[in-house]
Amino acid sequence: MRGIYDGVKAGDNELGRACFASALLRMRRRTGVTGFLMACTEIPLALRTADVPAECRLYDPGRLSARELAWRALA
User: Fold this and answer.
1) What is the pLDDT of residue 43?
2) CATH tag, 2-74
């Protein structure tokens, strides 16, 4: 929550990035997962692919939804 409220919402994306990357790395070590759904609108504003290990994949639900809507509209 610190990354959201003290970070992104307060305009400190660097703090947000550090908090989100740290949480992701802890989860990666604990569970071994490599795919992460950034399921809060603030997370993609601060965290980028370059901020996490290369084997980790970030999924932005807003971007995924927009892509699906575009495909359906153009189909």
Assistant:
1) 95
2) 3.40.50.1860
